[in-house]
TrEMBL record:
<dbReference type="GO" id="GO:0016757">
    <property type="term" value="F:glycosyltransferase activity"/>
</dbReference>
<dbReference type="InterPro" id="IPR001296">
    <property type="entry name" value="Glyco_trans_1"/>
</dbReference>
<dbReference type="InterPro" id="IPR028098">
    <property type="entry name" value="Glyco_trans_4-like_N"/>
</dbReference>
<feature type="domain" description="Glycosyltransferase subfamily 4-like N-terminal">
    <location>
        <begin position="12"/>
        <end position="145"/>
    </location>
</feature>
<dbReference type="Pfam" id="PF13439">
    <property type="entry name" value="Glyco_transf_4"/>
</dbReference>
<keyword id="KW-0808">Transferase</keyword>
<protein>
    <submittedName>
        <fullName>Glycosyltransferase family 4 protein</fullName>
    </submittedName>
</protein>
<feature type="domain" description="Glycosyl transferase family 1">
    <location>
        <begin position="166"/>
        <end position="319"/>
    </location>
</feature>
<dbReference type="InterPro" id="IPR050194">
    <property type="entry name" value="Glycosyltransferase_grp1"/>
</dbReference>
<dbReference type="Pfam" id="PF00534">
    <property type="entry name" value="Glycos_transf_1"/>
</dbReference>
Amino acid sequence: MIHVNLARGFRGGERQTILLIQALAGADGIERQTLVCKPSSPLRDELAGTPDLKFTNARHQLAGHWHAGKADVVHAHEAKAVHWAWLHRKLFQTPYIITRRVDTPIKPKLSNKAFYRNAHYCVAISSAIAQEISTLTFQKIPIIPSAFTPVSPNPNVVKELRDGYSERFIVGHVGALVDRHKGQRVLLEAARQFQVTRPEVLFVFFGRGEDEQILRQESASLSNVLWMGFKPNIGDYLPMLDLFAFPSRNEGLGSVLLDVMNAKVPIIASDVGGIPDIVKHKKTGILVPPNNSEKLVEGLEALINNEQLRSTLSINAFKQLERFSPDAMMEAYLFLYRTT
C-alpha cells in the first residue's frame, strides 16, 4: 500500500492523509504502508512512530518510484500525487486511487483526462467534487467524506479567553487566510456593519495565509476584529465561540466544520461546494449565498437574537458526527482497496 502526498505545507488534505494512514495501521489486509512525500513534509513528524510505515523521499512527481517499489495499490491524496500515481502505474502496472478534496475546476486537458480515466477509482469527499470529477471520467464516483477525531479542549485556555471577553458575543472563523477561497472579506464587511449596529459582537479570526497582511491592514480601523493567528490546537479555542461563521467562496468540504460541531458551536456558512453535505439548512446550521455580505449579516442577526435556535442547531449537528469518524472513512477506503 503506497500513499502519495507531495504537498509542501499542512492543510486539511494532509490532516486527512494522517488520519487514514493511522486508522489503516494494523487493519486486516494491510501489512505495511509507504508514504511518498517531500523530505521536508510535516507529515513525517506527525506520522513518526506509526507501525509498519515507511517513508520515501520525492521532491517532485518523477522521484521516488524505484525506492517505493511495487505495491497492491497507490493512493494519490492531492494533485501532484495524481501525476506520480499515473507514472507509477506506467512503470509497475500498479492500480491507483485518486482522492480529490477541492471543488475548483479541473482543466480539461488531455493529460488530466488520462490521469483520471486510468485511475481504478476517483473518490470525492463531497457531492460537489463528485460532479466536477464526472466531467473527466465516465465511472461512478464514490463519495467518502473527511473524518475528524474528537479533541477534549483545555479548560484553562477556554476560561482565560472567555474571561477576557466576558461581555462580548464572539463570532469566530477558522481557515487559511486566502480570501479568494475562504471569503474573509465577506465576514469583514459584516464586521464593519456590526461595529455600528452591534458593537458588543466580536469577530475573531484564526489562521494564516497569503492574504494575512492585507486583511489585517484592511481591518485596522475595526475595533471589533481580533486576529489570533494559526493555532495547531484549534480545538482548545473553538469552545470560546458563541457562533462560527464560514463564508467560503468555494470549498471542497470544509472539514473544520466537524471540529466546530464537536465543540457544540452553531454554524452559519456559505451554501457552496461540499458545505451543504455537512451543514443542513435550519437543521444543523444556517446556509447563506456565497459572496453576499448582506445575507450573511441577516443570518448572523437571526442567530444572535435566537439562543434557542443556536442551541437546537448545535445539538443536531453534534448528533451526526459518528458518520465522520476515522474508522468509518478507513472502512470505506478498505473496500475500495480490496476491489481494486
